[in-house]
## 1
Amino acid sequence: MAKPQPTIVDLARDLGISKTTVSDALSGRGRVSEETRVLVTEAAARIGYVGNRAARSLRSSTHGAIGLHIPPIVRNFSFYMDFAFGAAHAAAELDVDLTLFARDPAVSGRRGFPVDGALVVDPLRDDLTLERLLDAGVPVVTVGVDLGGSASRVSGVIEAQHGDTTRRILDVLWDAGCRRPAFLGSNDLFFSSWARDVSDAADAWYAARGIEPAVGLVPVSAGPEEVRDTVTDLVEREGVDALVCGPQGFAARALPTLEALGIRIGRDFPLVSLVSDPVTEANNPDITSVDIDPWNLGIASARLLADILLTGTDGPAPYRSHPSNVRFAPYLSPATASSPTTPTDEKAPGE
């Protein structure tokens, strides 16, 4: 016999909380603490729970598939692969397919989208694929806020609080004695809301502390020589005593340059990754790293889209916040190591 589908009653019993609390936590409604919301969401993912009405609605929809668009310039980053597999896991729970859009919108004309809804991850300004999805009437959840002219047309938004995380890390660096941390960020070739939020947070932090900014911007596709030259320029500026890297894996890529310059990372020169690479950074205890948990972000994004397809797209677009986890290197602040950034409650985008 097939194993019965887990229910809200099963979740409530396993967690020792009421069915109403579980329902509110999963739907993003009601007065539920973020700690409880995360606990319930993780438990639901662990036992394979999915709302029956959402699954039935998607299975009986026009195409039985949801789409996924990732900017081509970042498709080689493991973050997006993990996100895609998380979204695929949620799609499987809903008994629908996940379609990755590989087309180049500049040459594919206005070919249709055989999906009932779509996820657009880190939309770039005036993203053609996003615009054409919306023009075709496809409900879209963006993972990150669209910075172009389509933000008011999307059906929902989910994102991590990148700016808050960046400010928190910079404050910990200050408390540890760093007086001019350098920031290595992404240039205009990949200027998503993530890139904007971390850059704006760094700029505001410099201004609030009265510090002359030490900022270097590179393409996320930068080669070894460009990374080496930019890192060298940053750390040789007067007073620079730490390096905070935005794009995934760039902290690990900076290590050979730092070593060649005679800089050993540690209390006297902290190194930070704002998007941790699971292979080269997450397991290095000397690198402070941010885990955005892309697998569960993919699951949460697909479930948000399923909720929207079930309930309709009328009214304000729902906004969901996704938690990040900061693992501080022990030489920085053991008391705050491995503590998550607390996401905000549901709200409309821009509030």
## 2
Amino acid sequence: MDKGALLQLRKFLAPEFIFGAGARHLAGRYAHNLGARKAVVVTDPGVVRAGWVKDVTDSLENLGIAFAIFPEVSPNPRGEEVEAGTEVFRSEECNVLIGVGGGSPMDCAKGIGILSTNRRFLRDFEGVDRVEAPMPPLICVPTTSGTSADVSQFVIILDQREKIKYAIISKSVVPDVSLIDPETLATLSAEMTACTGIDALAHAIEAFVSSAHAGITDLHALEAIRLLRPNLLPCLADPANPELRTRLMMGSLQAGLAFSNACLGATHAMAHSLGGLLDLPHGECNALLLPHVIGYNFTAADDRYKAVGEALGLDLRGLDGPRASAAILEDLEVLRLEAGLEGSLRTRGVGRSDIPYLARNALQDPCVITNPRRPGQRDLEVIFEDAF
């Protein structure tokens, strides 16, 4: 094949996944199917308190599978936590990983898997396709409707010393099985529901306009937008409604299948930089930046953004580019504010002197490569200034 034909090829990769109420109780069965002798359950204190970890460990006990628990994952997982978890995995002689929680425990579990078979520093794997040896089997049980780490090729780790987040992207880190159970959203706070819901929406929008988009990823991205936009605010108003929670979880899954295969864009590159500097929730960073990035990108992908607007539920008939862009940005800003994510970068503690540093780090993030418009340092600085 010539180079032009090769560049038109697209791959699609996803784990086996089971979606529906009670899926978490299948962890033991799938661990058994994967040959588990002893599993390490990677999670955080909040998920333990919520009871979801016990449901998973009960399912292991029912099948006679031994386990250890590593519950020391921060909201943004640190490299040191991955190293500590790897030590538990090795010292306890485990051979299967189970990540239970939001993106942080699942990313930490992926990091543990990388280090357990690739005996180097975690930072050595930063970038695309640098994980050489396969990981041990990994089962994920997501408990938020946003990050989609349970179906993705991404690992995001915080380096506290350098105050940056870095990305490891590899098909090697796609979980073997994801048990996607909407019941686990019952204990999710309003703030986390808002943050993760808008994170998922950003996944879908950026995947749809990505320069690596394809027909199959477009289907997932648009369906995710159609599920997330009309259901997020009603879910915040009626958090105990299982049907609304199920729609958000399905939207998150669809968005994950889209972005894992089409990659993302400048919003996520900038959010990683911002989250690395201030250790902020990732979804909150996306919420603050997404409209400003769309404003920058719009002319480079106007037809695609108009399709996004229609999926958001907007009537854009007869509107030229500037008016269509304004309508989309207004809708996303209304969503952010009504979801309770008020304020700006300045109110989060960003100083104007931080902006060149933030832009410089974002420019090095692999997500920026598939942004529909290729930005330079000053372009990203201006976007950060607009969000200031």
## 3
Amino acid sequence: TGMVKEEILTRLGELGLRVEQGEITFDPVLLRAIELLPAATMLDYIDVHGEECQLEVPANAVAFTFCQVPIVVGRGDAAKIEVSLASGVQFVDGKRLGAEYSRAIFGRDGSVRQVTVSLPELL
């Protein structure tokens, strides 16, 4: 229903995920430190291939999926994004994922397997 969609969009905004000019950005101005996990836990999700998966989420982070790609947001010394790809790992400085990786996530092509965001403002 419309109400469910609104809740999903609202929560993604609270977690800091936004789409600006076709790029995924992370700016969790409403995410409070108390919402970060106090201890490591597991995230169960369905990936873009329809497979059931598990991901270990570290303490002092939160995790969710966006377009069936797991996103882990946690504390860090500088704003940076680690993009786990089918072909390896790439790093992006700042809070903007970039058009190429964003398109891959939107298209659910399986090339982006996980995104890990480190943000200093969560300290």
## 4
Amino acid sequence: IGVNHAWAGAPGSLFKTMLNGTVEVWAKPLPQQQVAVMVVNVGPTNATFGLSTEQDVPGAPSSDAARDVWNNKDVPVINSQLLLNIDVHDSWFLILSNASTLSWFF
């Protein structure tokens, strides 16, 4: 609900499709230069891939921190990359930010 109620000028939308259209990247800007990201596997098989915070997510070019919203834990960002493994018809819901601004949201 926190992401839903946080307003930073846009409601969020489909930003990109990856892996031949089987993975969708949805994004919504948040206050304090953060970005909410929903990555959905709509394909018929599990998907393992790197998500670039600089190229695959709008408005997060300097992200060095990621938070898994559903599991309430940090996800490693290494060289602006998140390594994601998403089961069939599953998703990841993340908040991307600089490490210094991530804690305000939780």
